[in-house]
Amino acid sequence: MVRVLGIDCGSQTTGFGIVESDEQRHQLVAAGTVRLHPKQHFNQKLLKIHKEIHQLILVHCPDVVAVEDQFYLTNFKSVLKLAQVKGVVLLTAAQAGVAIAEYSPLEIKSAVTGYGRAEKSQVQAMVRKLLRLAEAPRSFDTSDALALAICHIHTSATHRRVNQAAGL
Predict the structure, then answer these.
(1) Domains along the chain?
(2) Starting from the edge strand earliest in sequence, which strands make up the sheet with 64-68, in order?
(3) Bridge partners of 83?
(4) Of 20, 52, 107, 141, which is the active-site residue?
(5) 138: which residues sit within 8 A by CB, 6+ positions away?
(6) 120-130 and 105-113 helices cross at what angle (nearest 10)?
(7) Is 68 a catalytic residue?
(8) At 131, phi and psi to the nearest 5?
(9) pLDDT tens, 63-78?
(10) Is the dihedral of CA 160, 133, 15, 125 positive or negative?
(11) What is the pTM of this model?
(12) Active site (annotated) includes residue 144
């Protein structure tokens, strides 16, 4: 069994999703968002993200934290803020001694939907199906975080099988 905490970094809302899997069946452990007050100073937003992620790690003891590797935004200020949020998430995981995995948007969508250019609604629908949920997660931030966790589970299982076949 592996337990993965996927985090969809955002400067307004950061999504999280924890999935446990034996590689055959995935089970939702917890999911939601860290909502940040728009009028709050940015340093206080970063502190809130740190505290919330740290608490998730303490309570749920994930084996791995999975985050998005690349950002494709045209607004430099947005990219900078997103990078700062990601830095806080990475530092929080590293301080807790949790392994970190990073995946590109193409890898995430491919692992979950089979199509690297899938729409957010398609990712959301596949997350619901793969986790056998009665309804899809309410926000794209949450479904994207769960997709990150599922992507890591699928990718690491594939790497393990390839290494076994190669006798490594």
Answers:
(1) 2-165 (3.30.420.10)
(2) 26-35, 13-21, 2-8, 64-68, 99-103
(3) none
(4) 141
(5) none
(6) 50
(7) yes
(8) -95, 0
(9) 999 999 876 667 888 8
(10) positive
(11) 0.95
(12) no
CA gap 158, 168 in Å, rounded: 14
Q: What angle do CA 130, 83, 115 make, to 5 degrees?
A: 30
Per-residue tokens: 35? 């909502």
Q: Which helix (H) or strand (E) holds 143?
A: helix 140-165
Residue 45 in this model has a pLDDT that exceeds 80: yes
At 58 the three-state DSSP class reads helix
Q: What is the DSSP letter of 7?
A: E
Catalytic residue among 8, 20, 52, 144: 8
Is 8 in the active site? yes
Q: Which of 20, 52, 68, 144 is catalytic?
A: 68
